[in-house]
Write a structure and sequence with these properties.
The structure is a single chain. Helices cover 30% and strands 33% of the residues. It has 2 domains: 124 residues, Response regulator (Rossmann fold), CATH 3.40.50.2300; 99 residues, OB fold (Dihydrolipoamide Acetyltransferase, E2P) (Beta Barrel). The chain has a 5-stranded parallel sheet. Strands 12-11-10-14-13 form a 5-stranded antiparallel sheet. The chain is of the alpha/beta class. The chain is built from 7 helices and 17 strands. The relative contact order is 0.11. The protein is elongated, with a radius of gyration of 20 Å.
């Protein structure tokens, strides 16, 4: 598979280095355009069907996040390229697939490209097909601490869990249970069952996923109709279940 990509970077030397690295070390990537400004980058995004955008964080008259705000329904993956490590959290919150530091490491660049390639290949394989998890329901029970004791719940009843600070909301088909435990606690407690951490806020029962949607980081729809966001960094792990 070939990844159609563009480079949005205001420094000509940095664009040239990245272009040459991609041509030499990442032949799976076809660069179809380059831009030095947010405006020019948006024009490229609007005129090409893209799989991947290499995006510098700091540019004249704005930054990468200003650009992404103007592309709400994006289906491409984003690899941030920057000399500053303090943008990592913002990049994560903007569904970055990868975060490359300047000067660019060839090994890290290859890892970034391979990560996006695996995601795109899996998405294409699953497109227009019914999602069938490779694992079956695993019977088991979990105890939920309550003020007056604890509640015993069949694991298969759980659709998904949502973080709420130091609490977790447990969603069943017809009700929600609030538990004074973190989402990390339930991620560990349900590690032997088919539950995937798809986002910093969500842990989902893979067998309850009925639809996967491309976009930003992507999203899934569970059996009760609720749509949950998927972080780009979690997408590969999620897709491996199918």
């Amino acid at each position: 598979m070939t990844l159609t990509a563009i480079i949005i970077e205001d420094e000509a030397t940095s664009r040239e280095i990245l272009r040459e690295y991609l041509a030499k070390y990442c032949p799976q990537v076809k660069v179809v355009g380059e831009a030095a400004t947010i405006k020019a980058g948006l024009q490229l995004i609007e005129t090409h069907a893209l799989d991947l955008v290499f995006l510098d964080v700091e540019m004249p008259f704005g930054n990468a996040f200003d650009l992404l705000e103007q592309v709400p329904d994006r289906t491409f993956e984003t690899v941030f390229v920057t000399a500053y490590d303090h943008y990592a959290l913002d990049a994560l919150n903007n569904h970055a697939a990868y975060y490359l530091m300047k000067p660019i490491s060839i090994d890290e660049l290859q890892k970034a490209v391979n990560y996006v390639l695996e995601i795109k290949e899996k998405e294409n394989a699953l497109e227009n097909t019914m999602l069938r998890p490779k694992i079956k329901n695993v019977e088991g029970k979990i105890t939920l601490p309550q003020q007056d004791g604890f509640q015993v719940l069949n694991v298969t009843e759980i659709l998904y869990c949502k973080a709420d600070d130091n609490y977790t909301e447990i969603y069943l088909a017809n009700k929600k249970i609030l538990v004074s435990k973190t989402l990390k606690y339930f991620e560990e407690a349900l590690a032997d069952f088919p539950f995937a951490r798809i986002h910093k806020s969500y842990l989902v029962n893979v067998n309850e996923i009925v639809k996967y949607k491309k976009g930003k980081g992507g999203s899934v729809v569970v059996s009760n109709g609720k749509e949950l966001m998927v972080s780009a960094s979690k997408k590969k792990d999620l897709l491996s279940y199918f």
